[in-house]
Amino acid sequence: MLHLTLNQFAKANVSLLKTIPMTQKEQEQLKKLLLDKKVELEKELNKIADKNPLIEGDYKARYPKNADSSDDNVGRAEDTEVWERNRAVEQSLELELKEINETIDKLEKNDYGLCSSCKSPIEPPRIKAMPTANLCFGCASKASLI
Predict the structure, then answer these.
(1) What SS3 state is found at 60?
(2) Whose CA is closest to 38, among 1, 83, 6, 85?
(3) Which residue in 49, 4, 31 sits closest to 106, CA to CA?
(4) CA 48, CA 64: separation in Å to the nearest integer?
(5) In sequence order, what are the residues at sequence separation of 6 or more whose Cβ sits closer than 8 angstroms to the Cβ of residue 19?
(6) What gap in Å lies between CA 34 and CA 68, rounded to an integer?
(7) Cβ atoms of residues 132 and 9 within 8 Å
(8) Among 3.90.1170, 1.20.120, 1.25.40, 2.60.120, what is the CATH number of 6-18+45-142?
(9) What is the pLDDT of residues 53-89, one digit of tens each?
(10) In the chain, where the domains are located
(11) Cis geometry, peptide bond prior to residue 125 (ω within 30 degrees of 0)
(12) pTM
């Protein structure tokens, strides 16, 4: 089975570059890719973190091992370094997962490709480069995201 990345999907779908909204088939293809990416992100998160049962979409990085008084300072320092690195990775993965969930939600509501700020269509080259984009170029520029 052929698996495409989100960028490969955008490059392969010429109609995505010409017009918005997307066809039903293109939306289904993108949704499948997003769902596959979501599963991949959740697997990565589960390797380093536990789900927070109180907040949907929130994870807590696990401390590598239970430090006790018999551990030396070097061991505790190494564990802390690993935990801090995992926290940074966890936050990055959570953000990507949130963007994918929001994009899936927009696809399901037939809202995909519209700027969440000004409601105008997001420019096709921007969609091509970043399928999870939720702001048009103008609004992203104003928000200093570009």
Answers:
(1) strand
(2) 6
(3) 31
(4) 9
(5) 124
(6) 42
(7) no
(8) 1.20.120
(9) 999 889 999 988 765 555 688 888 888 999 999 999 9
(10) 6-18+45-142
(11) no
(12) 0.75
